[in-house]
Design brief:
Elements: E1 8-12, E2 19-20, E3 25-31, E4 37-44, E5 50-53, E6 57-60, E7 64-65, H1 66-76, E8 86-90, E9 94-100, E10 106-110, H2 116-122, E11 135-139, E12 142-146, H3 148-154, E13 168-171, E14 176-181, E15 187-190, H4 197-204, E16 215-221, E17 224-230, H5 233-236, E18 252-255, H6 262-271, H7 273-280, E19 284-285
């Protein structure tokens, strides 16, 4: 049983004219149905005005337009080996645009199949501020969203899609997470799902009168503020580990001051909610590398 290969032939040329002649070069990239490259090299029209290609052999291209070359390639491909070939001719290749939180915004060209990871590398790579949890890929009215962190951590190729000609990749800025209150080093850092409340507390250097057993995670949800109690003292003072709630983008870890009774501390925290959210915006920013 003969193996059938679906070929996508991409012909790229830098010529302004629409025909090829002696000395002109054409870059041809061929993928099989699995997206693997069969051919990816440049071919030059020889002194006989012939273009010699794998799977096809040589044929004369003198005074032929690119469309005529396309038709000739189509006719010469063996249908028993290559079924329903798709042939693309383009004078300047394929392009994608990328904007937002990336090292180099702009328009980039490519002449072979690429995935999101390769496109990001072509643009210089992600920033610490890049929201890798929700990268948008837009093409016309079609918009897709990908959790690129899933590919980074687990190799999930569903979140590392193939980039198509004309795609626009949009990277938004990550929200911060904060630690404030009775600490020597209040700060904010771009959200990362590997950072725990304990990490924030340790780096914040709680003061002597910090009520670690009454720490609270403040989380805004629409018009409400959720309060998640968290006992940091079990770990920081007693070495008792427990499962902490995971931080979400925008969360504030608030460590209150020990003022006597638990009721006094809780009341003090609730009264300061509005001030906490305002004040947290003004603390210094640190890098994840500081952890």
């Amino acid at each position: 049983m003969r193996k059938t290969i679906l070929l996508i032939i991409i012909i790229l040329t830098s010529l302004l004219a629409h025909s090829l002649s002696y000395g002109d070069s054409v870059h041809i990239t061929v993928f099989n149905v699995l997206g693997q490259e069969e051919i990816n090299e440049e071919f030059q029209v020889n002194y006989r005005n012939e273009l010699i290609l794998p799977y096809i052999g040589g044929f004369n291209v003198e005074d032929m337009t690119l469309n005529q070359i396309k038709d000739e390639i189509f006719k010469r491909l063996d249908p028993d080996v290559i079924k329903s070939p798709l042939i693309y001719l383009n004078t300047d290749g394929f392009h994608f645009n990328i904007s937002g939180e990336i090292k180099n915004e702009g328009k980039f060209s490519f002449n072979k199949k690429i995935r999101l990871s390769e496109a990001l590398n072509m643009a210089g790579g992600l920033l610490e501020s890049s929201d890798k949890y929700k990268i948008l890929v837009v093409n016309g009215e079609k918009m897709r969203s990908y959790d690129y962190s899933s590919f980074m951590k687990h190799g999930d190729y569903m979140n590392n899609p193939i980039i198509e000609d004309g795609d626009t990749i949009i990277l938004k800025e990550l929200p911060y997470i904060y630690v404030v209150g009775e600490v020597n080093n209040p700060f904010k850092v771009y959200y990362d799902d590997t950072i725990s409340p304990l990490d924030l507390a340790i780096l914040s250097k709680p003061k002597e009168r910090a009520a670690l057993n009454y720490a609270i995670i403040l989380r805004k949800e629409k018009e409400k503020v959720l309060k998640l109690n968290i006992n940091l003292a079990n770990v920081m003072q007693r070495g008792r580990y427990q499962d902490f709630p995971s931080l979400l983008p925008g969360d504030i870890l608030f460590i209150p001051k020990n003022r006597g009774s638990a009721l006094d501390m809780l009341t003090n925290t609730i009264e300061k909610f509005s001030n906490i959210f305002v004040g947290a915006k003004n603390v210094k920013t640190i890098s994840k590398e500081d952890f």
